[in-house]
Amino acid sequence: MEKTFDIVVVGAGPAGLVATVAAAGKGAKVLLLEKMEKPARKLRITGKGRCNITNIKPEDDFLTNIFPDSRFFRPAFKNFSNTDLVKYLNSAGLNTVEERGGRVFPASQKSWDVADVLVKEAEKKATVICRAKVSGLYTDRNSVTGLCYEHDGKQKNISAHAVILATGGLSYPLTGSTGDGYEFARHAGHSIVPLRPSLTGLELNDYEPINVSLKNIELSLAVDGGVVQREFGEMEFTGYGIGGPTVLKISRNAVNAVIANKKVAVRINFKPALNRQQLINRIEREISAIPNGSVPDLLRKLLPAPLVTPFVKKIQIPANKKTASFNLSDMDRTVNGLFSFQYYVSGFRPFEEAIVTAGGVCLREINSKTMCSVLLKNLFFAGEIIDLDANTGGYNLQIAFSTGYLAGQQAAKYVNTGYER
Ligand SMILES: Cc1cc2nc3c(=O)[nH]c(=O)nc-3n(C[C@H](O)[C@H](O)[C@H](O)COP(=O)(O)OP(=O)(O)OC[C@H]3O[C@@H](n4cnc5c(N)ncnc54)[C@H](O)[C@@H]3O)c2cc1C
């Protein structure tokens, strides 16, 4: 075995970096191992390069965005909240700005600046080694004794008084998040709640690619015929199906329903601000403006052009029909189509394109007040490896920061005092 550190942190994403800083801040000698060339590869591409660091919503509102059990996250959030995070980053030299919906970004609008501040803080206080791929943990009855890793083509063993697993999930594997930690956790006796892509696009049945972005629509998710979720905002039709903000929001429920073999449909309301009579009046006005027009001419007044052909096909009105012969049944079909344009969902985009991983190390097997395993007394978890995920809006990074901070503090407390659990 090599020289001993008090704590070895595996994975230099946001969770591992903050865990390192928190543990070292309590006086522990910490080694942070990262398998990629550079720490925090994923953090550097977050928020389309701008990094939505957190969301400044009050605790109860914040927690409604966390799944599958926000109660598990509350102690970590209370210990290092969204406001604590912003204060911490500001004091470390990173200015932040709050935008619409409580979302917090670096003032520079550069995710690299967030990563650099955290890496600098970790390097100041601990030993950080990159290109160090951990390949397994050594365990002995109810504790972890060390781990093995590969660095510069050499296998190395290292002992540790505590280990923090912060290896992330499975999404965007090119950033280094390839799910290695799940195997280590399994080896230590933990159960892994099935892993699913979340915050991901949806693939549609009977869909011919359309390329268009929509604003101010209402998107509903229907499972086995009943609407289970409604979101208002933006979405886009893409080569494979649908993506964009409202689609990401419904994707967690949609993915779960597809996996459960349920009948899953999305319904788009193109005119959510109008009631039925208002929409009929609007259509009648448009018809009187083009008495000799065709149905597609009419629809071009009501929908973005790329949607007109698929819409006409779906509502089954002959494309060459003239508005002059538009009858009550045509009006009904058009109104119903504009209020509820439906596709069945055939699948979802894979981990390679998903923002986060749902599932992970089972919450029942982690102490929510310490992030310590209930099976091994000195194994801690932080970040996306845990069975926690969230909506878009900065919530996922706050999960990584809060659980990382708590795991770091508590691992240090454990090595300092061998605390009673
Ligand atoms: C495109 C994209 C945009 C996003 N934008 C946002 C956003 O704006 N706001 C937000 O809140 N969330 C966002 N997220 C989600 C957020 O990035 C993640 O939830 C967060 O990075 C998880 O942090 P983590 O530290 O747990 O894991 P990760 O960031 O995945 O870090 C894990 C680290 O562990 C390392 N590792 C893995 N296995 C080993 C091993 N065997 N040995 C050594 N090291 C290992 C990996 O290389 C990696 O560096 C985004 C995600 C993506 C993909």
Explain the overall architecture.
This protein has two domains: 5-197 and 357-417, FAD/NAD(P)-binding domain (3-Layer(bba) Sandwich), CATH 3.50.50.60; 201-349, no CATH class. 33% of the residues lie in helices and 29% in strands. It is built from twelve helices and 22 strands. The chain is elongated, with a radius of gyration of 25 Å. The structure holds flavin-adenine dinucleotide. Flavin-adenine dinucleotide binds at residues 10-16, 33-36, 41-43, 45-47, 51-52, 133-134, 166-168, 171-172, 176-177, 180, 355-356, 383-384, 394-397, 400.
Can you lay out the helices and strands and say which pair or pack?
Layout: E1 5-10, H1 14-25, E2 30-33, E3 54-55, H2 59-63, E4 66-67, H3 70-79, H4 82-91, E5 96-98, E6 103-106, H5 111-125, E7 127-129, E8 132-140, E9 143-151, E10 154-165, H6 180-187, E11 192-198, E12 202-204, E13 212-223, E14 226-237, E15 241-243, H7 245-259, E16 264-269, H8 276-289, H9 295-300, H10 308-315, H11 328-339, E17 341-348, E18 356-361, E19 366-367, E20 372-373, E21 379-381, E22 389-390, H12 395-417
Parallel strand pairs: 1-2, 1-10, 2-7, 10-21
Antiparallel strand pairs: 3-6, 4-22, 5-6, 8-9, 9-10, 11-18, 12-15, 12-17, 13-14, 13-16, 14-15, 16-17, 19-20
Helix pairs in contact: 1-5, 1-12, 3-12
The chain binds flavin-adenine dinucleotide.
Residues 10-16, 33-36, 41-43, 45-47, 51-52, 133-134, 166-168, 171-172, 176-177, 180, 355-356, 383-384, 394-397, 400 line the site of flavin-adenine dinucleotide.
